[in-house]
Write a structure and sequence with these properties.
This protein is mainly alpha-helical. It is built from 3 helices and no strands.
Length: 96
């Protein structure tokens, strides 16, 4: 009998994966991985079989490690912000 991960472990993994997905500097990558993360965890939440749930959880842990490494590389080589992204205000010299 396979012990499925607890709800708390799944929620913690979801939060970590969502944070990693939101750390991409590229707008397209960021939105894609946020959407993919939400979809994967919705499917995991609907899963009833403990074996499949355990397998999905283990795969999500592996994907989190890849996502973190990819986000770090994307931050190193990130380009200009797109027009659809929220632009930060330009600060003038002497402003706090």
């Amino acid at each position: 009998m396979v012990n499925p991960p607890s709800r708390q472990h799944i929620l913690h993994l979801y939060g970590s994966t969502l944070r990693a997905a939101k750390s991409f500097s590229s707008y397209n990558f960021r939105n894609y991985f946020v959407q993919r993360t939400r979809e994967n965890f919705r499917n995991m939440q609907a899963e009833q079989d403990p074996g499949k749930l355990s397998h999905a959880y283990n795969e999500a842990v592996k994907e989190l490690a890849v996502l973190r490494r990819s986000a770090m590389v994307n931050q190193l080589y990130g380009g200009w912000r797109l027009a659809v992204e929220e632009q930060s205000e330009v600060r003038e010299r002497g402003e706090n």
